[in-house]
Amino acid sequence: MSIDLCLKEKFDAVNTSPSLKCETATYVFDWRPDEKKLKDITDILSKTSGKFVKIKYIDTGYSIVVTCSFPHSLTGALIIKLSENLELLIKNGLMKLTVGYCTIWKKQKIQEMQEPLEEEVQEIKEQPHDTKEERVAKLEEKKTEGATPQSVINQDILSIDTSVTIINKQLIKEMKTNKQLDETLTKMKVKGLQQLLSLGTNSSLVSYRIRRGMRMEIEQLQLLLTNKTGLLDQSKLLIDIKREIAELQEEISIMSVHILNKREENKKYRNILRMNKPTEESVFIARYHYHATMSGRISFSEGEQLEIYEKEDSFYWKGRSLVSGDEGVIPSSCVYSMSESLQLLKFILSIEEVSLPILQKIRDNSCSNDEKASLFLEIINDDPIMISALRQDKKQHDKRVTGRVKWDSDRVTLYSPSPVQCNDAISNINNNRKKIDLRSSSTIGTVSLLSSTKLHTLNLRRLEIWLTPLTNDCIQYLCTLLTNNETIQELVINGHSISDRGVINICQALEHNFRLTSLDLSNNPLITCTSGQALSHLLLNNSFLVKLNLRETSLSTESILLILQSLCYNNNIRRFILDERHKETCINIYPNYHLIHDRVRWWPY
């Protein structure tokens, strides 16, 4: 398409507000509209400006004026790109280039001055003339002879013509000098702009060199101005040179401001980069896909890298995704790092006693440290909640946490209990206290409590386990307790305390349990779709459960649909609690939802 067909036409697909001056780039080319095509403009802009600019409209005067827009945040990058390709733009007829309020390059039209001056020089060369010394001698002679004023004037005119010849010789020489100055000033502007954009930590030294170089150019111009005597348009030339000096001084001021701003901006960015650069110890890997169920938390996928920068809470850390950039709360049980795993191995090898037989085997093994590390990683892969359990053990060990036991009329609560406190509580408990509440317990405390055979015969009604990661060994003790104790009616395992393997084992233990009526497995992100089949079988085989709570878990919608199908065959469940994020899909997909809707409770975000 020819350029003259799209002059003054808007290139935006829809009407948009006018671009700000600081977001506008103008290219002036020495082209004729009927000789160039729109593709010529798009090609040269693509080569020299990349994808930073977008054409707004094209205008014409004595040349082609292309006005483009660009995001203000890309100003620095655009100027760098244009500086690198300035020579290509000039070769393609660039007369003027501005970005925002800054003129990047402007062609000085010396040719317009040169042609008439050369004509005058040619005319003067054809006329006879005397030297300056001869003219002075003749003037003195005329004065002595008492020549008439008119003759003196005629002689003076002749002498002026002679002076013009000399001046024109100087003018030709001076025009060459001006051309060199023009090229020097152009190179100096480009070089100064490139130096401004490449400012780094040594911006003070660079700014000093730029100012010193510009001052030297000003001094050279002033020196040339002093030596330029006898030119025809001396006053005009003086004005032009002063204007050049003023422009240079203005550029020095602008560059100085840019340098100061750039220095502060670079300092700010360096601090941000220094703060945001994750260390090896702070980068964790997601073991599972996690869907945030509450505000303030972030979702992530299996294998995603996460930076952790705050671990004040044992089970809820603060960090950000290195993939999406989202920041917020991250459940610690869903992430791991190799660096932390090796620290946990070092911890279990250094303490006096471990409660889990599988860890004791590693301690007793006489193999090398590398082989022990390999065995430890296998244990972690087999029992994912082991990491959370060892984190809690290490934290309580390092902080020398002292547990406590609280006795109420119908309940005993154990907070981070030691083995001694667990044994004392079991010895003193009686049938009047029908509830046991275990909170934030270490593995050694949990094993001490759940492995006690006295609990098998105790008249318990309710057992609660909060913020206590149950490893495979602990789950086995709990399943034995559920099988042997014939009085437990309510079981609560809440707060990052159980994983899929634990759920599967407990469901198997409860399939033929005729006493448990309430099972609460809420707030356990390590319960995933792997547990869906076991929970579905539990509802099909256990007809005594009345309440099942599965909110704030990582169960998939497909797993929930499978469990809902079993719920149709279990009329004893009166209250089934699920995350509300599954509600719409379940209602729309499950055809028999209307048969169970009054028994399902959707837990809001």
From TrEMBL:
Keyword Amino-acid biosynthesis included in the entry's annotation: no
Pfam family for this entry, one: SH3_1
Domain SH3: 279-340
InterPro entries reported in the protein's UniProt record: LRR-containing, LRR_dom_sf, SH3-like_dom_sf, SH3_domain
PROSITE patterns found in the cross-reference section: SH3
Keyword set includes Nucleotidyltransferase: no
Protein name (Swiss-Prot/TrEMBL): SH3 domain-containing protein
